[in-house]
Amino acid sequence: MLIVSGLFFIWTGYLWKVFSCGFAGSYPCVETWSLHINETNLIEIIKEIKKEHPELQPPGDKELTDGRNSYWYDITFYYPDTKKNVYTWTRPNDDTTYTTIAFVAIATHIDSLTPIKEIKMDRQEINRDFGYFANKKEISKFESRILDLIETKINTKRTTRKNDSR
Q1: Please, which residues bridge with residue 35 across strands?
Q2: Which of 161, 153, 63, 58 has its CA nearest to residue 112?
Q3: pLDDT digits (tens, 9 = 90+) for 86-102
Q4: Element (DSSP H or E) covering residue 86
């Protein structure tokens, strides 16, 4: 029993980070999902979702997406309950009918109206800067608040297309 408890604490305290992060690349620790949709259509769906759910749009941001940054297309969401920005990116897979979406980091929202005393530089990378349970909680929150909306809209559009083609 002591060994099992020790292994549990070693895993949740440290080892899981070794296995959740890669060792190379620009974003070694992101959490990714592969969606069956090409990147252009995924970005359009995200824009639609941000129009339908304006609370997911960071306050003061006029553009619904951030735009292309080299190989990645950056998109920032917002959690109004915690006043945090949620940083993500998309990129096409080798099979361009699939797109990878990644959950990168969370940070306190800062805009031109943020008082200086409230500005915090607290960006936390997923799978690296959170403890085991907090990391699981953040991934679950992202999945339920953002990813589920995206997947639902993808499935709705796919179903609509199938019905229209009959």
Answers
A1: 99
A2: 58
A3: 999 999 999 999 999 99
A4: strand 84-92
Give the count of beta carbons closer than 10 Å to the beta carbon of residue 139.
16
Q: For residue 56, give Cα distances in angstroms to 14, 70, 76, 79, 84.
A: 32, 24, 9, 6, 10
Dig out the tokens for 152 from the structure. Answer: 């639902």
Structure tokens at 163: 């019905």
Measured CA to CA, the distance from residue 126 to residue 13 in angstroms comes to 15
- In this prediction, residue 80 carries a pLDDT of 96
Secondary structure class of 57 (helix, strand, coil): coil
pLDDT digits 0-9 by tens, 126-135: 988 888 889 9
CB burial readout 90-116, b (16+ within 10 A) else e: bbbeeeeeebbbbbbbbbbbbeeeeee
Return the pLDDT at 121: 80
Cβ atoms 150, 158 nearer than 8 A: no
Please give the Cα distance from 91 to 95 (Å, whole number): 11
| pLDDT band at 22; cut points 50, 70, 90 | low
Token representation of residue 1: 């029993």
In DSSP terms, 90 is beta-bridged to 73, 101
Provide the 3-class DSSP secondary structure of residue 130: coil
Please tell me the pTM assigned to this model.
0.83
Give yes or no for residue 11 having a pLDDT over 90: no
